[in-house]
Amino acid sequence: MKRFAIVVGTAILGLSTLTACGGGDDKPAAAPNNSTSQGASSSEAKLATAEVGNFGKVVVDGTGRTLYVFDKDTADPSKSNCDGDCAAKWPPVLAGSGTPQVDGVDASLVGTVARTDGSKQVTLAGLPLYQFAQDTKAGDAKGQAVGGIWWVVGADGKKITTEASSGSGNGYGY
Known about the structure:
By secondary structure, the protein is of the alpha+beta class. The protein has one domain (2-164). The protein is built from 3 helices and 11 strands, in the order H-H-E-E-E-E-E-H-E-E-E-E-E-E. The chain has helices at 2-17, 34-37, 85-89; strands at residues 46-51, 57-61, 68-70, 74-75, 78-79, 101-103, 110-114, 120-124, 127-128, 150-153, 159-160. Strand 4 and strand 5 (78-79) form a beta hairpin.
């Protein structure tokens, strides 16, 4: 019974944190897929580029998941302003123990920044990189323009502010 209470409590706490940081609407957020959202935190991060939707070539992680930048972060100096509830919905791309590998991304633009929890987050042109928990497969870009503050990022480190096409939804599948 105690184990059941812990599992239920953890699930409720986890789901309640997913409503923060982003869209500001009342649609529920999907739980992150831990098998992929933690993929960038293995021994080393991997950055590549891929054609995604109508955004052209954007930066993706080693599993092909689209990466994002956050308007509330800073590039000079690099600073992540997405922690706690925000980071549950927008998992940071963690550097891991090695040097980030790059394919199609200028290595001179790639760096890291220390997060408040002591982990190192990968940056591109100084801006911290994130995944979106509702992107469940390679090629998804459901986080584009969420709240008008989350953006896919090009290989040059610049945010792409093109709105999602009508077929790609608003980040919540609607």
